[in-house]
Design brief:
The complex is a heterodimer of chains A (497) and B (480). Chain A is mainly alpha-helical and 497 residues long. Chain A is built from 21 helices and two strands. A two-stranded antiparallel sheet of chain A has the order 1-2. With 480 residues, chain B is mainly α. Chain B has a domain at 264-480. The longest helix of chain B has 32 residues, at 150-181. The radius of gyration of chain B is 21 Å and the shape is globular. Classes of the chains: A mainly alpha (497), B mainly alpha (480). Chains A and B meet through helix 5, helix 6 and helix 7 of A and helix 17, helix 18 and helix 20 of B.
Chain lengths: 497, 480
Amino acid sequence: MEFLLQPLTLLTFFPLLGVIVLLFMNSEAKTAIRWVAMVTSLLTFGVSLWVLLQFNASNPDLQLVAKYSWINVAGWNIYYYLAVDGLSILLVLLTAFLTPISLLSTWTAVEDRVKDFMIFFLLLEVGMMGVFLAQDLFMFYVFWEFTLVPMYFLIGLWGGPRRIYAAVKFFLYTMAGSILMLVAILWLGIYGNTFSVPDLIAKGAIPANIQWWLFLAFTAAFAIKVPMWPLHSWLPDAHVEAPTAGSVILAGVLLKMGTYGFLRFNIPLFPEATVKAAPWIALFATIGIIYGAAVSYAQQDVKKLVAYSSVSHLGFVMLGMFALNVQGVSGAILQMINHGISTGALFLLIGMVYEQTHTRDIKVYGGLWKVMPVFGTIMLISSLSSMGLPGLNGFVGEFTILLGAFGSKAIGNPWYAGISAIGVIMAAVYILYMFQKMFLGPAGEITHHHELKDLNWREILTVAPLLILMFWIGLYPAPFFNLIAPAVEKLVSALPL
Amino acid sequence: MTQLDFQIILPLTILTAWACVLLLVDLLIPKDRKGITAILAAVGLAVTLGFTISQVGTEHIGFNNMVVVDGFSTFVNILLLVSGLLGIALAYGYIKRMGLDRGEYYTLMLFSIVGMMLMAQAEDLIIVFLALELLSIPLYVLAAFARPNLQSEEAGVKYFLLGAFSTGFVVYGTALVYGATGTTSLNGIFTAASNGTPSLLLTIGAALLLVGFGFKVAAVPFHMWTPDVYQGSPTAVTVFMSSGAKIAGFAALLRVFATAFPSISVDITGILWVLAALTMIIGNITAISQSNIKRMLAYSSIAHAGYILMAFVPYGNKAVLPVSIAAGLFYLVSYAVTNFGAWSVVIALEKAEGKGLEISDFAGLAKKYPALAIAMTVFMLSFIGFPPTLGLVGKFYLFRAVIAGGYTGLAIIGVVTSLVSAYYYLRVVVNMYMREGDPTIEREPWLDITTLSTAVLTVALSFVPQWLFLMASTATLRLF
């Protein structure tokens, strides 16, 4: 039972305590339920900060290791194995940080089955934490698949009109990728006689031709989750139908599970295949960047617009990661966080206005800034952060990524970075187009007929932490880079480049 | 008959005697109190279970090498007896509610279980045949138990005709094998077959046996009877059939082929590969279009037979065999637990005249009966092979054995068909949680206990599967 006292065990399973409390609560006591969930997620965030305090940024290896034999019989070596390093620490913090913010946004938005909602949300947090912390393939797979279940219910129960379709599509699409990964995981487990990732890496190179197949199998799971073009078609549906808090977590954290998977498994486990695949991934990433931006521009539904912008932004992340140099990979990790913050903020804000108007059609808005000045200002900052304006977080990430991709030996062709840079300009186009149509100009149909109220204190409090981070990362990103740099250097130096 | 012989069949003897006595005692129990028969039958199973557990770790062969007890048979027998207990728990309220409250129900179940257990212990094709008949005939009667309900009668007749047909295959296969080797003892066949080139006669005989067992475990293309029989039979019988008969069928299949026919595994493995693949593909794809929950679960049970068959494909490979047997047994346990759970929810919703059995009848269940909906969700996730359920661990184990045996292609078919299955299992969840409806359920204490215990087991065992792993991997087959 010693493993229960490990900091990472506590971090992963802390939300379960909240779930247990919630189970025994009367489902009519909605405010109390919200508070219990809120306090649980805040305490979890507290635990994550405690973990950060114990984290040694100059150490490139796995830290705070909790490793215990779990299933050990007949050639199985499955460990209960949690650990954190520079690749995952920021994502862990992001997860713990975005959960209370998402919960705060549901305060008035979710009135139906509040108890169930909170239970699913906290279970989702357990799953996400587990994905970022598990270092055993079996354990990782369990958490990876488990996150699907609460998210499926969040979309299917509290979503929009086409929620059932979106939920099932989300479930089946993601599962389609992960089943191939399952076969690869089993193959690795038999090959290495262990499922522990560090042990498998230490075991040495897997034969190159097999590496290639395993790489593809893992890629299937992660590329769908990211989502990389052309596997992205589940994303707009899921985003549009999901409730606001679901969209925030989906964009903010769940998509990062895909990119993180590449970092944690594909690159260190299959180095030869990674180098071989880099130009291809770069190609798909570049197409994704341009395609996502172009499709965003064509959207009339503002949530869909932001959803497609995610395809574009995550293209940048993939491009930077497969530049396979320190700049590219650290830029990619930082951009994962940035995207979580900016897109999270955009989804939150859209949710706030949707709660009043019940429409997401860009056409019917217009002149919102006059009626809701605070909302307009915050929206402007978040939009600028999303399109990568210097001084805000998005710029730092995208700039580092492009820098990495230009000089990348693995990609071997500066054109990918060159074309992707156009994506930055296109982002400005679709974001500003959206902003202009909704906030500037003459008052639209909705703005005219609705008694729109500006943001209240709770709503401002919800987005304020995100705004602070936008400026912080934009103006002084060094502390964030310091956290990830040693681990990234170690990851990159192990590659046969 | 020596003392050792007697020890080997002790649990079987006890259960048979108990069933015979119960048949007489039942006459004295008044018509409106047939619950007593159920309790007596359960006690009989429990006593037998106790004696079976005392056999753990022993390995003997007796009756001139005709009946055996080993780790494998003991494991299967325990599983069968627990299935029997669960089967009685599910039937207890159900047959009363449906007006089928006749005492012979339980006696027939006991006889059938004796047959199933003998299947797992048979070391001679003649015994296999005897056991097969003993397990099947009571089931034919049970399938038609809801007479004069036409569907139930149809189920009984259909099961009987096709069952008799399949038994014919077994007998014919036995005859051919005897012709080829001059013996019906599994050990004898093995010795005869491994001296010299295997004859075509032997291969055909083995293939015919495979057809016969294929009928019993409902493997494609011998599955046609399954949906009709599962749908028409009283649901409590269906549950028992879909778990017990399948477990016994697989047990015999595995023992006969691993003991007697390793020498022709080159031919048989290919056939098993195709059977497993077809069963998974057709079972899962056909299940998609079902709107009746009993039919859907019938096709799902066909699909799961395909998964279990995968474990048998490398049966001739002595290095891999122990792992695949263990994986197959583990999967049987996970399937049985989940299966009982899922069917118990179906029974809770079933109304007289076969009403309440459409998947759309599950609509709104989550709002009205959240606990039942959670339980059903757990079972559906377990069938898909999703965490945090036993089904995931079972599939993980099974696919690992298949890949270790060198059949990665088959494993890929397995995972892809799991994806297909997610679609129809999720439909139940969608109905329960995301559609509006006003279902009513029956609350019976034993039914509730079964649902609760199987749901808890399904989740809890996925976190601590170690001991079940150990048990399955020590349940070795007695080989020569």
